[in-house]
Write a structure and sequence with these properties.
Blueprint: E1 2-3, E2 6-7, H1 12-24, H2 29-36, H3 44-57, E3 60-65, E4 68-73, H4 77-92, H5 97-123
Antiparallel strand pairs: 1-2, 3-4
Helix pairs in contact: 1-2, 1-3, 2-3
């Protein structure tokens, strides 16, 4: 599913912020940044910009609490997973879920075979 030629799937950084909000339930910029800092040292203003972008897109809602905004996810994990899978099926499998399933099943054997070939060449 596409909107104005762009994917409805959030870019990686937006998705990372959404994952934090899913875990926390809600949070301000400082809360989200604190959770992200272990894997990405992002500036406060970067996290603020990303959360504001998510709010404009309708993925989160924000409300003023004191001097800051508190962000809560609107888009849930399950809905986003469904969108991502639908996007994958439409983009790579001509809309056929059966084709995706066949691909995944064939990948089990081809992945193992590719791994064996890699091991064989590594031993040479």
């Amino acid at each position: 599913m596409r909107r104005n030629g762009t994917s409805e799937i959030p870019p990686r950084l937006e998705l990372e912020c959404l994952k934090v909000l899913w875990r926390l339930g809600q949070g301000n910029v400082k809360d989200v940044r604190r959770e992200l800092i272990a894997s990405r040292n992002l500036a406060y203003t970067t996290v603020m910009t990303v959360l504001d972008r998510l709010a404009r897109k309708g993925c989160v809602v924000r409300r003023k609490v004191g001097r800051s905004f508190l962000y809560s996810p609107v888009l849930n994990r399950d809905s986003l997973c469904r969108l991502a899978i639908r996007d994958l099926v439409d983009s790579f499998f001509e809309g056929s879920e059966d084709a995706l399933l066949r691909y995944l099943r064939s990948g089990e054997t081809s992945t193992a075979a590719a791994h064996e070939v890699h091991l064989d060449t590594a031993l040479l």
